[in-house]
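=== RUN LOG ===
request id: a7f3
mode: sequence -> structure
chains: 1
length: 205
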Amino acid sequence: MQQTYPFELMPLPYSYDALEPYMDAETLHYHHDKHLKTYIDNLNKILKDYPQYHDWTLEDILKNLDEFPEDIRQTVMNNAGGVYNHQMFFEGMHAPVNENPMQKLLADAFGSYEKFVESMMDHAMSQFGSGYAWLVINPDKQLEILNTPNQNNPMSNGNIPLLNVDVWEHAYYLKYKNLRKAYVTNWFHLIDWKAVWQKARENMN
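=== RESULT ===
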């Protein structure tokens, strides 16, 4: 995610129907092409008159929110978070596969893969209203699961995000209606564990 201003809508790394039957093409189309595009347009609009930030990446922005004038800081956080969080969510999925090179790391951190799933599910379900559940590397270089409201991002608190699940209703309502648990349960079939493993290796040493 090394883009800088003006930020652009990057294409999905798979076709709209590639995640069937767990995630439908219509939801992906609206979620990516409409919702994410709105965050990108809003972020570019905010930054237009602040050239001192035009060479900042999304990570630079989210790690240094205190550098922004107070009157735009919250809006920058909302929209930069909206872009980063959505891009990570889309890039963190893949057509259903079985291989998971993170099994040992997850078992060491949480007791077993099943306990990781249980904790991730609990965080996704306990997020009141809109937000995300995350697998991160915390400042102590340990794997941790946490949740954030709205478009807040764990990087703003010194964490390194590895994986997230979007629990805003627009991420699942067309297919799952109000059944968030069914959506999150099926999301586990779509995780691109090779990408998660690569990022974990790069940041845990």
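=== NOTES ===
The chain has two domains: 25-91, 103-204.
The domain at 103-204 is CATH 3.55.40.20 (minor pseudopilin epsh fold).
=== END ===
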